[in-house]
Every structure is written in structure tokens, then in C-alpha cells.
Amino acid sequence: MIVCGIEIKSFEAIIAIISCDLASGTVSRIESAKKVSLNNDEDCADVRSTYSAFESLLRANGVTRVAVKKRAHKGKFAGGAISFKIEGLIQMQNVSPVTFVSGQALSAAERREPYKVPSGFVQYQNEAAKTAIYVARGCQ
After folding, report:
1. Distance from C-alpha of 108 to C-alpha of 29, rounded to nearest angstrom
2. pLDDT tens digits, 27-73
3. Which residues pair with 20 in a beta bridge?
4. DSSP result, the chain
5. Which of the listed residues 53, 63, 94, 129 has the most CB atoms within 10 Å of its CB?
6. Backbone angles phi, psi at 49, to 5 degrees
7. Checking DSSP bridges between strand 2-9 and strand 65-69, what pairing results, if any?
8. CA distances to 72, 105, 113, 120, 134 from 108, in Å
């Protein structure tokens, strides 16, 4: 199973792609882009370009599942308008199914069994990698 974990921050999707062997439980990192950005959300060409880049990334890496870390819809830590556009672009892709994972579910699963994030990820990719591992484990 190849899972693309995503954490959306501001105007970019932070990406971590992992390969998980369900039989042995081994998780390894797949080399790919670290971010996909939507620089100008008012420019249709830029929105289409971001969509194409994301879909191409999924196809090129043979992703079988996409896992997105949920963001708050309201309140102090609510996501911004551009981040919700990025989320919509992710959901529109036709490559693989999308699963949303709450931060609380990630934390609870980590308390039961700590995540072993494969080496090679940059620190800012850790939450995206944990989201991918959570889905690969079959927690959701």
C-alpha cells in the first residue's frame, strides 16, 4: 500500500509519501515532492496547475490512498480560505480515495503505538508522515 499523507498549512499542502508492507508492518519513505503550493488562488491557471501537479504526483508514485490531517472549520485554529481550496482540489482528484484524520485520532493512536516515521523526511513533513502511517496501519 502506498499512502500520501498531507498536512495543509496556509497556501500549501505538505506531502509525505510512504510505502507500507501490511504483512511485515514495515514502512518506508518514497522520494517525492515535499510540498504542492497554490500561490495565487484567484488565478484560474494557477489553480488548474496546482491540481495537475498534485494529480501527477499521485500517479507518478502509484499512490493507492490519500490521508489528509483535518483542520478546524471555525475557532482560533481554523484553516484559511486558501487551505480549503487546496482541500477541495485534493478531494477532486481521480487517482485514489481520500481519508480525513483528526488530530485527536492521531494522538490517541500514537499513545497506543508510537509512530516510527521513516528517516529522510524533513521535520515539517512529520505530521503528514504520521497521518499516512495512521491510515496505512488501518486505523481508519
Report:
1. 23
2. 878 877 789 999 999 999 999 999 999 999 999 999 999 999 988 66
3. 27
4. -EEEEEEEETTEEEEEEEEEETTTTEEEEE---SEEE-S-TT-HHHHHHHHHHHHHHHHHHT--EEEEE--BSSSTTBPPHHHHHHHHHHHH-SSS-EEEE-HHHHHHHHHHS---PPTT--GGGHHHHHHHHHHHTT--
5. 129
6. -65, -40
7. parallel
8. 18, 5, 9, 25, 11
CATH number 3.40.50.300 given to 2-136: no
Please give the Cα distance from 124 to 33 (Å, whole number). Answer: 13
Q: What is the pLDDT of residues 8-17, one digit of tens each?
A: 988 899 999 9
Do 40 and 79 form a contact (C-beta atoms < 8 A)? no
The ranges assigned to domains in the chain are 2-136
Listed residue (126, 87, 130) closest to 105, CA to CA: 130
The CA–CA distances, whole Å, from 136 to 47, 68, 72, 87, 117 equal: 29, 12, 23, 20, 12
Distance CA 17, CA 132 (A): 7
